[in-house]
Amino acid sequence: MEHTGDSSTAVIRFHLPAWTVCGLLGLAMMLVLIFGSAVHAASGPYIGIGGGFSLMEDANVSAPYRDGTYPPLDATTNIDTGYAVRGTAGYAFASGLRAEVDISYQENDTTRMNVKSPGALGLVAYGKVRGLPPAELGEEYAALPVQQQSTYEEAAKGTSRIRGDITMLTVWANAFYDFDLQSAWKPYVGGGLGFARVSIDAKSKATGSSLADDEDTVFAYQIGAGLGYALPRPQERALTATLDWRYFSSDDPALKGDVTGTKFHIEIDGHYAGVGIRYSF
């Protein structure tokens, strides 16, 4: 858990290590195997589709010292509510266990970055904005094109207006357990592991200059729960409508900043809330 912010704002962020999530998933599956003795009528292969809201946490953006020259980058970018779609294919066992492959895509816009320490993004401009003598700005900064100088200065002001989006294409291997309530309603729990292709495309609103346009593939995990309802279909295979929730997170992707050419890391975690439909063959 991480606490960030100033005296007026506090953000609580939960970021579970991958080994912790793997352990929780393993424990959940073991309990299901021990206590989940109910026999479920519907078993066999299935496919599903779903969609809903991607509710990502505001993301910490960071970069370490570089060659003893640039100070570390420490910033937070706000991420708006976005959308997500997913498709699944799997197999339901008579015990209530389901194993599936899930391919999902989500996109979120970002409009503002709060800079605590500008790092390479505003090394010299940081001093200029705060009134350091011109002699300390350096010849290298003075030789930059005016637009690039403006981009540095905008980034160093504390709050930068940006225009961009973060997208994720993720392939999951999931395991879920459906609880048999002897009715059409079937709650479920579970989670999955996978890989996410994280892409970011962000520009400065003030100057139009590209801040980042890069992508990286990282390990990801999710835990989730939901509620299914078996729609009445006499003498036909099961059709189940679902309400779904997921918490997802990933390793921090390493992305290249266009202004400085240096790498930075961004935290990826958040929630998915949506609806789906599942058809059993």
Quick structural overview:
Helix content is 14%, strand content 56%.
Question: What structural keywords apply?
Answer:
eight-stranded antiparallel beta barrel, 4 helices, elongated, two-stranded antiparallel ribbon, 281 residues, mainly beta
Walk me through the structure.
This protein has 281 residues and is mainly β. Helices cover 14% and strands 56% of the residues. The protein contains four helices and 14 strands. It has helices at 18-35, 123-129, 139-142, 146-155, and strands at residues 2-4, 11-13, 44-56, 59-63, 73-79, 82-92, 97-118, 159-178, 185-204, 210-231, 239-250, 254-256, 263-266, 269-280. The strands form two sheets. It has an eight-stranded antiparallel β-barrel with strand order 3-6-7-8-9-10-11-14. Strands 1-2 form a two-stranded antiparallel ribbon. Helix 2 (123-129) crosses helix 4 (146-155). It is elongated. The two termini are 43 Å apart.
Secondary structure layout:
Blueprint: E1 2-4, E2 11-13, H1 18-35, E3 44-56, E4 59-63, E5 73-79, E6 82-92, E7 97-118, H2 123-129, H3 139-142, H4 146-155, E8 159-178, E9 185-204, E10 210-231, E11 239-250, E12 254-256, E13 263-266, E14 269-280
Antiparallel strand pairs: 1-2, 3-6, 3-14, 4-5, 4-13, 5-7, 6-7, 7-8, 8-9, 9-10, 10-11, 11-14, 12-13
